[in-house]
Write a structure and sequence with these properties.
By secondary structure, the chain is mainly alpha-helical. The chain contains five helices and two strands; from the N terminus they run ααββααα.
Length: 140
């Protein structure tokens, strides 16, 4: 009976650790999420895979956009991965800007949270959550 109580105590302790697992899940998923965002930008496509409009000269647009993307983890038990876009790339990405008013094409670089997380990124987060839960609950 003592062994059963010990196992139950261990299970309860593991479940309590899961409450704070958000940061670990986000931190584990961050490299893959960031790599996905950079890969689609490097390919000259939106997060959904839609190719960006080429330049007026017919060249691929924003060839260095991937270098302007970074990511951070913030929050505690409900941690977030925030993708950050820097520099002039924000003008191409934003839906309402001076360039858009001049008729220049919009080139979405990061996903719109209102549209949900892209499938590939959601899968990366799911894989990270599975690994963290397995480790927390006594697996590998």
């Amino acid at each position: 009976m003592g062994d059963d109580v010990s196992q139950l105590d261990e299970l309860v302790a593991n479940l309590r650790r899961l409450d704070a697992a958000g940061v670990e899940i986000a931190t584990t998923a961050l490299p893959e999420v960031l790599a996905d965002a950079k890969a689609t930008a490097a390919a000259g496509a939106s997060p959904e895979g839609q190719a960006w409009t080429p330049t007026k000269e017919g060249r691929p647009a924003l060839p260095n956009a991937a270098s302007a993307i970074t990511a951070v983890v913030s929050g505690a038990s409900k941690a977030l991965i925030t993708l950050v876009l820097a520099g002039p790339y924000t003008y191409h990405h934003a839906s309402k800007n001076k360039s858009a008013k001049k008729g220049l094409p919009r080139r979405p670089i990061l996903f719109n949270p209102d549209d949900g997380v892209p499938v590939r990124m959601a899968a990366a987060i799911g894989r990270a959550a599975s690994r963290v839960v397995a480790r927390t609950m006594g697996g590998r």
